């Protein structure tokens, strides 16, 4: 049986030369020849959720991106940044972060993502065609650069989830309306992954390089999460295999990471943990404590319940609650809300107004809030379920 290689190397800082050395060793560990970049147009897809400083661990570190771009260039490839944040334009996120300096110094092209084209894959479960940024069609190789984080809806976000950014802007919010529960949303993300693997007329070469040096635990994936050192760089050509190893390395429960368990069942690549070979530094070399997962909800922890009414959600499910002490009334939450459940304040307290009968508990508002002003409030009868 051929095993899928996943490289795990210890890396404790974001120094450019150290990163470049570690990434080149990662490619060697998984048998990926960087000569493949020669003459190729190489899409680099980081996680640029919102403008955030690197120490917050919300986005892929700009020096991690820089090291990958430099490797592509040094082997004769053309790196192109392709990303579509939910709220902000990619140019705004770049301008407000370390990416501005990197893009300029490395001469990295930033793709326009407004235009879309349709990918079709009959092997999808619910979505057999999806519209993605057309810039991906022009790439020969796609390098996925996820940041490992816990997630309130999907338990973890890694290589599979990061490709959600292939769907432009606020179109992503519409998917939360179509598939609001964590279970169905994870299945949708696997449909998207299947489209990306099999939907192009000429299949793309995929490479997944994960920034796990400073990762995130708790109420991720936005500013409400807590940075935590994992001190790891991970690499694979299989997104599901990479996410399995990253989740294991974080000390989290793989059974709750449905993009992994359902990903095995899809059989797009590896079908079980037994088909994965961990190479590089052993797990014992990493001494971080197990990550603290998101407190989640009955829905985001992927437990199926037949009762999905508004009353049930309001009584039993965590709800996003803005706090007046941190809220600046920027209304990014209102802009991203796929259910139209958020409106401007009508007085006191001076925070966005939520209609919890409309709220679908996708927590997109928590993801994009730049001030981490939104926390989860308990449903009045949630203690009953916790018994």
Q: By CATH's scheme, which homologous superfamily of the largest domain applies?
A: LarA, N-terminal domain
Distance between the termini: 45 Å
The CATH first-level class of the largest domain comes to Alpha Beta
Helix content: 25-40%
Q: Categorize the overall geometry.
A: globular
CATH topology descriptor of the largest domain: Rossmann fold
Q: What would you say the CATH architecture of the largest domain is?
A: 3-Layer(aba) Sandwich
- Main pleated sheet: 10 strands, mixed
Range of strand content: 15-25%
- Overall pLDDT score: 91
Helix/strand order, N-terminal first: EHEHEHHEEEEEEHHHEEHHEHEHEEHEH
The number of distinct β-strands equals: 16
Residue ranges: pLDDT <50 for 5 or more in a row? 297-308, 383-387
Number of helical segments? 13
How many structural domains does the protein architecture include? Answer: 2
């Amino acid at each position: 049986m051929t095993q899928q290689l996943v490289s795990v190397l210890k890396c404790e800082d974001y120094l450019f030369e150290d990163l470049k050395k570690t990434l080149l060793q990662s490619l060697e560990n998984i048998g990926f020849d960087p000569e493949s970049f020669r003459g190729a147009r190489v899409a680099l897809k980081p996680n640029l959720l919102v403008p955030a400083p690197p120490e917050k661990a919300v986005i892929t570190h700009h020096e991690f991106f820089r090291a990958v771009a430099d490797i592509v260039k040094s082997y004769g490839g053309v790196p192109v940044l392709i990303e579509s944040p939910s709220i902000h334009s990619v140019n705004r996120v770049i301008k407000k972060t370390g990416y501005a300096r990197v893009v300029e110094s490395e001469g990295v092209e930033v793709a326009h993502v407004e235009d879309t084209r349709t990918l079709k894959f009959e092997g999808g479960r619910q979505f057999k065609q999806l519209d993605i940024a057309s810039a991906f069609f022009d790439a020969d190789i796609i390098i996925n650069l996820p940041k490992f984080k816990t997630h309130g809806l999907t338990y973890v976000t890694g290589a599979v989830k990061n490709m959600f950014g292939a769907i432009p802007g606020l179109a992503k919010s519409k998917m939360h309306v179509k598939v609001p529960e964590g279970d169905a949303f994870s299945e949708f993300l696997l449909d998207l992954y299947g489209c990306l693997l099999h939907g192009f007329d000429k299949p793309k070469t995929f490479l997944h390089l994960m920034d796990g040096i400073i990762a995130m635990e708790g109420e991720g994936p936005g500013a409400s999460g807590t940075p935590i050192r994992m001190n790891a760089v991970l690499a694979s050509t299989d997104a599901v295999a990479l996410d399995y190893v990253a989740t294991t390395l974080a000390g989290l429960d793989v059974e709750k990471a449905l993009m992994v368990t359902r990903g095995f069942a899809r059989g797009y690549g590896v079908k079980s943990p037994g088909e994965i070979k961990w190479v590089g530094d052993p797990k014992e070399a990493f001494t971080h404590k197990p990550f603290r997962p998101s407190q989640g909800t009955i829905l985001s922890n992927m437990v199926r319940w037949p009762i999905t009414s508004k009353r049930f959600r309001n009584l039993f499910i965590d709800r996003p609650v803005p706090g007046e002490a941190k809220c600046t009334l920027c209304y990014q939450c209102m802009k991203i809300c796929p259910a139209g459940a958020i409106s401007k304040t009508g007085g006191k307290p001076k925070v966005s107004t939520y209609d919890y009968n409309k709220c679908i508990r996708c927590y997109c508002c928590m993801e994009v809030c730049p001030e981490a002003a939104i926390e989860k409030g308990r449903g009045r009868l949630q203690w009953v379920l916790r018994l």
